[in-house]
Amino acid sequence: MSETRHLSRAHIHLDRLTHNLRLLQNLVGARPMWPAIKANGYGHGMELVARHLLKSGYDTICVAHISEAVVLVDAGLHANYLLLSATLPEHSEAIVAYGCEPAVCTMEMVESLVVEAEKADRQISVHLMVDTGMGRIGVTPSEVQSFLAQCQAFPRLRVRGLMSHFPCADEKDKTLSHEQIRRFQGLAALARSCGIEICHLANSAGILDLPGSYFDAVRPGIAMYGLRPSREIANPLVNELKPVLEWKTQITMLKEVPVGVGLSYGHSFHTTQPSLIATIPLGYGDGLNRNLSNRFEVLVGGLRCPQVGRITMDQSLLDVTRLRGRVGLGSEVVIIGRQGEAEIGADELADILGTINYEIVTGITHRVARLGETDNGT
Ligand SMILES: Cc1ncc(COP(=O)(O)O)c(C=O)c1O
User: Fold this and answer.
1) Based on the domain organization, do 225 and 256 belong to the same domain?
2) 205 and 126 within one domain
3) What are phi and psi of 192, to 5 degrees?
4) CATH number of the domain residue 113 falls in
5) DSSP class per residue in 244-277
């Protein structure tokens, strides 16, 4: 078969994923880790990551939506899928059919799940989300007891878990997080007295910086991918995480351009000297944010080169003048990753855009091929 794959590729280093998982697992000990692979595995390729996790022995995996679990199960990747986002009764039939465990926070959702479980002659397990401070979804702490009491009326329903989430665990000031842990401890005691088996709270920042937040299971996301939850994480182990994703492409055209020539849409860049300009087949359609235009560098031949002109949907331009005679068609260009001694991290692009590394990697679109790799080349 002739090659048709897109020339923009995300290389997913699976042995680095294993390294990061081990590092996090060492922190939490024997407790189960339930990795988060929502949003296409934070851009790393949901199926690729799920396959690796299952092979590595992880049996419970967090996604946001039933649609994500459906893709995974239909691909033969059978696991216990925990659905993190609140949803509506229209999804209940599929949630029951696919045996997923949703986070719930409304009686409407519980009742519709029970109706579908009865129709299918199955049990449904759920996790009650309690809002201890996140302010996004969840019942209030004072509602937990009555919610659990109402749930006991449904023999088809098993409330398997009590869960909550941190909004500020990645910040230096841990006051709110400690207060959340304290609240959750009280709620966990209550939940256990109602027969709930598993109480879970910690995300990556909790795992790294808040050992008191581990409870019965943890839900790591960003750290598993080798990225720091923020620069304010105190645990020095954060420096031992290895970025799993590298984003690379190749030069598809090279041209000598005289001084004073406008390049790309809007002519936002004009050459200030005779320049060697390279084209790469990568644009905002691939997740390269247009607001990065004229504001970031890539690696070519082990050196930093500026991107110039507007990023377009499919193609962008680089000034590779300093590499005259040392680049050609097909030369490798690194957007995120390492080349020789040089390295560009997702944090660098995030800082330029005033966002977080999560958004940079998650924003890499489906058009970019995800290639699973190991550093020893297998
Ligand atoms: C409910 C919940 N748990 C766990 C995570 C994982 O968080 P992180 O990627 O910060 O580790 C997320 C991600 O946003 C989440 O929404």
Assistant:
1) no
2) yes
3) -65, -35
4) 3.20.20.10
5) -EEEEEE--EEEEE-TT-EESGGG-EE-SSSEEE
Q: Is residue 146 part of a domain?
A: yes
- Amino acid at residue number 97: A
Residues 106 and 213 in one domain: yes
User: Are 220 and 286 contained in the same domain?
Assistant: no
Strand partners, 253: 279
Within 8 A by CB and 6+ apart from 64, the residues are: 38, 39, 83, 84, 85
* Tally of structural domains, the chain: 2
- CA 220 to centroid of ligand 1, rounded, Å: 6
- Catalytic residue selected from 38, 42, 225, 358: 38
Domain termination site, one of 231, 259, 274: 231
Distance 20 CA to ligand 1 centre (A): 16
Name, in order, each residue with C-beta under 8 angstroms of 58's C-beta and a sequence gap of 6 or more: 21, 33, 34, 35, 79
Give the position, in ligand 1's atom list, of the atom nearest the Cα of 358.
9
- Asked if residue 49 is part of any domain, the answer here is yes
Cα 38 to averaged position of ligand 1 atoms, centre (Å): 9
- One of 55, 119, 255, 265 is an active-site residue; which one? 265
Residue 132 to residue 217: CA distance in whole angstroms:
17
The ligand 1 atom at the shortest distance from the C-alpha of residue 169 is 10
Q: Compute CA distances 321 → 252, 297, 327, whole Å.
A: 16, 13, 10
Is residue 7 domain-resident? no
Atom nearest to 224 CA in ligand 1: 11
- pLDDT tens for 269-326 read 999 999 999 999 999 999 999 999 999 999 999 999 999 999 999 999 999 999 999 9
Q: Is the pTM of this model over 0.90?
A: yes
List the domain range (segments joined by +) for residue 298.
245-344
CA 274 – ligand 1 centroid, Å: 49
Site residues for ligand 1, CB cut-off 6 Å: 36, 84, 165, 203-205, 219-223, 229
For residue range 63-95, list pLDDT tens digits in order. 999 999 999 999 999 999 999 999 999 999 999
Q: How far, in Å, CA of 244 to CA of 360, rounded? A: 13
Task: Note whether 88 and 208 are same-domain residues.
Answer: yes
Residue 270 sits in a domain whose CATH number is 2.40.37.10
